[in-house]
Amino acid sequence: MRLFRNAMEIVMLTRREMLSAAALVGGAALLQGPQALAADAATSPIDYTPVHTPNGLSLPFKTIDGVKVFHLIAEEIEHEFMPGLKSHCWGYNGRTTGPTIEAVEGDRVRIYVTNRLPEATTVHWHGIRVPNGMDGVNGLTQPGIPQGETFRYEFDLPNAGTYMYHPHLDEMTQQGMGMMGMFVVHARGGQRVDRDYCIMLSEWRIIPGTSRPVTTEMVDFNLLTMNSKTYPATEPLVAQLGERVRIRFGNLSAMDHHPIHLHGFQMFITETDGGIVPPGARYPTNTVLVPVGATRAVQFVADNPGDWPMHCHMTHHTMNQMGHDVPNVLGIKTQGLGKQVKPMLPGFMAMGENGMDDAMQMQQLPNSVSMTGGKGQFGPIDMGGMFTVVKVRKQLSGYDDPGDYAFPPGTLASKATAADLDRDGIDVTLKAKS
Known about the structure:
This protein is mainly beta. The chain has helices spanning 15-24, 33-38, 171-176, 337-341, 418-424; strands spanning 62-64, 67-82, 85-92, 101-104, 108-115, 124-126, 150-156, 161-166, 181-186, 195-204, 223-226, 237-240, 244-251, 258-262, 267-272, 275-276, 284-285, 287-290, 295-301, 306-312, 374-376, 379-381, 387-393. The protein has a domain at 15-309: Cupredoxins -  blue copper proteins (Immunoglobulin-like, Sandwich), CATH 2.60.40.
């Protein structure tokens, strides 16, 4: 393989060079984040906590003459958002969201990008200060990577932080089809966390009964995802009691910002897309706004055991497909309406007369999912979409789901007894005052 000294140069590889590059990164073996980094630990021990990407993994690398070498493959894929809903998408290395790239500030990285899409592509390293010729903007800083070709990007990582990668060619289509990933640059030294999570926020429109994202959508997105999964397929985040946890968010949604709310804890915003926030400038919050095209990282101490929701606080963003485009019929008697309307509109569902709760688990069309679908230990969870659970326990085994939380006696909300009401002077027969 040829050696290149000019980091500004993007080189088109021959077939022989492509095969050599693939060999460098271990072929198709994609490992979990801690395992992928451990493969390199023998020569460069790590002094940070590797990222765990729920429903995802980290991109493996090899170190060649002091340079960390990665290989991204842009390709068409079939992706399952949750059981019952699959779609033809585009992604990296067989997945959307693409594998997380991890390195350390001061590292030099060499990233090969092979294009197996039906059109040209590029990769932009969103937020990272790179030489101009490595910035990945089609037509301005580089030519597009033609179908079947491989380009090489090489640059140093001057700043720690939470970043992203995505195409800068036909962005509406390529990002809308799922081409995006997280790029984490760990700090050398500094405060170490016990668990480090990484979540990409994104939005899609997939019309029920179809199997391709509508990339031209500008308003009504009916699938809101974390790492391209919608609840209940989102993997829970786990922590042992007392551990310090970092969660990194990136938002490559087409149009929407996302206020991510975590129950049960006060978080501190420790990073923005500009880098690490100085300790004196951090402030407590339990909702972090992640704007379009931005990243945020938060930290908290897992000092409150339980199963805690974490979700976007835009209420439509915690619903799946069948919660969209539904008429409001609260208080309207709908008995017999479906029989009259269905001959004209086969997909019509008359629901919501007494609210949406009873209808949330319905599924109507092939390759579509109901408004919600999660089941908790007390029944259905009336949320879906951009929703997951943070599970804090006294003891854990790695990142495995510990199951439902066991509530200590006296800590579970329950039906008030007659003795409760009598003791506290509560008269439930009184009418509310206007």
